[in-house]
Design a protein that fits this description.
Number of strands: 20
Largest sheet: 10 strands, mixed
Shape: globular
Structural class: alpha/beta
Bound molecules: guanosine-5'-diphosphate, 6-O-phosphoryl inosine monophosphate, magnesium ion
Strand order of the largest sheet: 9-7-5-2-10-1-11-15-19-20
Oligomer: single chain
Strand content: 15-25%
Radius of gyration: 21 Å
């Protein structure tokens, strides 16, 4: 079964958009299986830069069917705006995209609650897109599935029930809830645009897999932001790991042939939460963190927030390899490391119970990274198209990453453009 999952192995923003775009050259179906407009996947073609948030990164290839599956949460006006923008930029086939009638609708009260909570002590640095409250409604069984757009009368009732349940929370946070009329006034004009795209997408994806269509499952966020396996509670509210492709798209694990983990050559994180290898004051080498941010252009593609930057964390990568069952990796942004005065990687942790090469995900506040020095290099790498074009020290660094992941890097990315890529093997090799 030709199902391939692309999953972030770190805290998101590993370069999934670029790699999915490249891998989609031959894919027939691309499925986003989780998250919502908290994602920002960047695609660079020539001098053009496109950031997709809800639309799958396969959209630039006109013969590829793009699917938004039921693991997602969807903000209607953002979806429509994103589609209009893509049409304007020369991708009219975006209107052929299919959307699950069981994905959940993000409504104005979800955004309101997310924003209000972020003003308080419990802030975790969310994207304020309403992601958490929308998934809360889904698991509380009072959410609004996309299929409700087919019958706005029935949808009104669902909205009324959810608003009633949120009332005390909104009041306690000092906010003013919208009325049902206000919520519906926002939704109603968008429904006719979206209803024609609604389908039982799980059945369509399954049909494609049975017909042997190469199907790419595009992860959003990353392993360490996963609600079950991430650095809880500083996580998103969905299943961002490879297993999330099965639950989020509605396919069985036997349909997945390959799981490709996206590994940035260093680490970044946006928002709050533990980040043991972070290079920020008062830690030593904070200036190198600033340099990585500048050279790597590490600013959030959704909120514009500066991303926190730090050394590569190999125990975290081992953890991601295990949780996702990675059997290939794609390394991105290797070019950003050119010219660093020093280069370190975290190889293990010192914890109260001793030294470990595992990622101590449950006790990161009491764990201290142990580093190993790597040989830096000064040669530019963005022109490299095969491994031999890379300086020996960079090749060694790639080898170190492969060893930790326990599998081969099928792609080494050396720039944001499509051609700035070392493609070492095909997806199914
Ligand atoms: P995603 O959320 O995983 O899709 O990643 P983002 O798009 O949020 O962030 C990755 C950023 O790195 C984008 O600006 C990409 O254009 C850029 N990028 C991807 N691969 C490379 C690379 O190999 N080198 C450099 N310099 N930039 C890259
Ligand atoms: P992509 O797909 C990086 C982070 C937020 C915050 C936490 C919870 O582009 O890699 P949320 O709004 O989801 O409730 O915020 O998760 N976050 C991301 N960080 N990349 C992402 O997506 C992210 N999506 C959510 O910054 O720390
Ligand atoms: Mg991103």
């Amino acid at each position: 079964m030709p199902g391939v999952v692309v999953v972030g192995a770190q805290w998101g923003d590993e370069g999934k958009g670029k790699v999915v775009d490249i891998l989609t050259e031959h894919a027939e179906v691309v499925v986003r299986y989780g998250g919502g407009p908290n994602a920002g996947h960047t695609l660079v073609v020539g001098n053009e830069k496109i950031i997709v948030r809800l639309v799958p990164s396969g959209i630039l290839r006109k013969d590829t069917r793009c699917v938004l599956a039921q693991g997602m949460v969807i903000d209607l006006s953002r979806l429509v705006d994103e589609m209009d923008e893509l049409v304007k930029r020369g991708y009219p086939h975006v209107s052929e995209m299919l959307v699950s009638d069981r994905a959940h609708v993000i409504l104005s009260y979800h955004r309101l609650i997310d924003g209000l909570r972020e003003q308080g002590d419990g802030a975790i640095g969310t994207t304020k897109r309403g992601i958490g409250p929308c998934y809360e409604d889904k698991v509380a069984r009072r959410g609004v599935p996309m299929g409700a757009l087919r019958d706005l009368g029935a949808m009104r009732e669902l909205v009324g029930r959810a608003l009633e349940a949120w009332q005390p929370t909104i009041a306690a946070l000092g906010g003013k809830p919208p009325t049902v009329d206000e919520v519906m006034a926002e939704v109603a004009p968008l429904a006719p645009r979206i209803v024609p795209m609604l389908r039982d997408t799980a059945a369509i994806v399954d049909e494609g897999l049975r017909a042997d269509k190469y199907t790419l499952f595009e992860g959003a966020q990353g392993t360490l932001l996963d609600v079950d396996h991430g650095t809880y509670p500083f996580v998103t509210s969905s299943s961002a790991i490879a297993g999330g492709a099965c639950t989020g798209a509605g396919v069985g694990p036997t349909r997945i042939k390959r799981v490709i983990g996206l590994v940035k050559a260093y680490c970044t994180r946006v928002g709050g939460g533990p980040f043991p290898t972070e290079l920020a004051p008062p830690k030593p080498d904070a200036d190198l963190g600033e340099r990585l941010r500048k050279i790597g252009d590490e600013y959030g593609s959704v909120t514009g927030r500066p991303r926190r930057t730090g050394w590569l964390d190999l125990p975290a990568l081992r953890y991601a390899a295990r949780i996702n069952g990675l059997d290939r990796i794609a390394i991105t942004k290797l070019d950003v490391l050119t010219g660093l005065a020093k280069l370190k990687v975290c190889v293990a942790y010192r914890t109260p119970s001793g030294e470990t090469s595992d990622f101590p995900v449950g006790e990161l506040d009491r764990a201290e990274p142990i580093y190993r020095d790597c040989e830096p290099w000064s040669e530019r790498t963005s022109g490299a198209r095969k491994m031999e074009d890379l300086p020996a020290a960079a090749r060694k660094y790639v080898g170190l990453i492969e060893e930790a992941a326990g599998c081969e890097a099928m792609i080494v990315s050396v720039g944001s453009r499509r051609d700035e890529t070392i493609l070492r093997s095909g997806v199914f090799d």
